[in-house]
Structures are given as structure tokens and as C-alpha cells.
Design brief:
This protein is of the alpha+beta class. The chain is built from seven helices and seven strands; from the N terminus they run E-E-H-H-E-E-H-E-E-E-H-H-H-H. The longest helix is centred in the first third of the chain and has 28 residues. Bound molecules: zinc ion.
Length: 254
């Protein structure tokens, strides 16, 4: 996601990964903890820890995907994890359409690759695994169900290991797919803008913002059909913010 980066704080954690500087703002842990403690607040501490670890790893992999491709195109990126998710910022990156589209795609693709490696790893450890469309596995299995697809494996003895795998697969596959929707400020919104501007240099920005308003509103309807307050709120906000950006951009042209 591309939102404003928070200012440095005393609680920041710093390290480098493949030479790319990473900063973790304390709000990242706070929001992750808040999300992990569900409803009644009686979630077992181990489940909360597994969730925080899975979220941390998933967002880090996603942002590193962006950052490594930014560096490939000659930039000097830095990664920040904060309360709103993650950010791979790069002031000196190549601004060409091709580079920008590949940089945007790299985040979700890094998550998909991690999910694929996890499923391969489960098989290599001798556990039966697979994925089924619109069917449940016959064997005694654990897994996740996403958009009619079941990803399953014969369970590990450790509940924490099964929980970690479920969270990692869920976050990386679902968040990767959501991120590809043509909605600002998701990665798909950036790709949509680049493509629209390539075809219509003058009106491309307006077209991509209109697409963003409609696509986010359609996701609100999906949220209504799922009865998910979180989906409705998230996409309702993105549709509204795209609409405001569209109005601001149009008035700036006059
Ligand atoms: Zn991204």
C-alpha cells in the first residue's frame, strides 16, 4: 500500500535484509496485537503470537518483493512496517510504465511465491497436501478455504505449526488477490493508473480513479453479501477516498 510514512520514533526496530534497510514502527506491533485479540479478548496467547509472526513475515515478504524489483531498476529502496501495513519507498526509482507495473506486481507475487513454497515444503516434509476446487478433502486434514478453493495438508503434531501455516497461506493468498484489485492505493490501483495513462495520456488518471470508485463500491456489495463489516468498511472507505481524489484531480485541471 502507498500511504504516508510515519516519522522516526524511539521504539523503531532497524535491520537490513539483502542490503535493503527495514524499519518497524512500534504501531505495527500494536495494530497486529489488536487484530490478533479477537472479539471477547479470550484468544489464547499462543494464537495471538502466531498471528503476529505470520502477519509480520507476510507483510515483510510483500514489501521486500516491491523493494527488490525497485533495486533491480536502479533505485535505493527502504522498507517500513507501520500501523497501516507496509511501505516500500524509493525516491530514485525508474518511473517508466514497465518498471512501475513490475514493481507493483512484485509485492503480491512475492506473497504467492511464499504460499507456493510453503505448500511445497509441507509435501517435502512427507505430509500429504494439495488443493481442491469446490470440494473438501477426503483425508483427515487441516487447511484453509478461499473463494471455493481448499488448500489442505495432513496435520503436523504441533498446533502452532498448523496455525502458522494456515495464517501464512491465508494472508499471502487473500491479501495478494485483494491487492491486485484496481483500487487506490492498492497495488492493482497503481497498475490500473499506469495502464490507463499509457492508453490515454490526458484522461488516464481520471479513468483509473473512476475504475477505483466503481471497483471498491462493487467490493462493498461483496462485503454485504458476505455479511462482513470489515470488508464493507475497508472498501467503503477506499471508494470514498478515490471519489474525493477524483474530485480534487478534476478541479485541479480547471
Ligand atoms: Zn504492495
Amino acid at each position: 500500500m502507498i500511504l504516508a510514512e510515519p516519522p522516526p520514533s524511539q521504539g523503531d526496530v532497524h535491520f537490513r535484509l539483502w542490503g535493503i534497510p527495514v524499519r518497524i514502527h512500534p504501531f505495527f506491533w500494536l495494530v497486529a496485537l489488536f487484530m490478533g485479540i479477537q472479539g471477547s479478548g479470550e484468544t489464547p496467547p499462543l494464537e495471538v503470537l502466531v498471528w503476529i509472526a505470520a502477519l509480520f513475515l507476510s507483510i515483510l515478504v510483500h514489501e521486500m518483493g516491491h523493494a527488490l524489483v525497485q533495486r533491480h531498476f536502479g533505485g535505493h529502496p527502504r522498507v517500513t512496517l507501520y500501523g497501516m501495513g507496509g511501505l516500500a519507498a524509493c525516491a530514485d526509482c525508474d518511473r517508466s510504465t514497465r518498471s512501475q507495473i513490475l514493481i507493483s506486481l512484485a509485492g503480491p507475487c512475492a506473497g504467492f511465491l511464499l504460499a507456493l513454497l510453503l505448500l511445497l515444503g509441507i509435501s517435502l516434509l512427507g505430509h500429504q497436501s494439495g488443493c481442491l476446487l469446490f470440494r473438501q478433502p477426503q483425508v483427515d486434514a487441516v487447511g484453509i478455504r478461499l473463494l471455493g478453493t481448499t488448500f489442505f495438508w495432513s496435520p503436523f503434531q504441533s498446533q502452532a505449526a498448523n496455525g502458522m501455516l494456515q495464517q501464512l497461506l491465508y494472508i499471502n493468498l487473500l491479501w495478494g488477490a485483494i491487492n491486485l484489485l484496481p483500487i487506490y492505493p492498492l497495488d492493482g490501483g497503481q497498475i490500473s493508473r499506469e495502464l490507463c495513462q499509457l492508453r490515454h495520456p490526458r484522461q488516464g488518471m481520471i479513468l483509473s480513479l473512476r475504475i477505483s470508485v466503481v471497483a471498491a463500491a462493487a467490493m462493498v456489495l461483496v462485503g454485504l453479501s458476505w455479511g462482513s463489516f470489515l470488508v464493507i468498511l475497508f472498501f467503503g472507505y477506499l471508494s470514498y477516498s478515490s471519489y474525493r481524489a477524483l474530485q480534487a484531480y478534476q478541479s485541479s485541471l480547471w
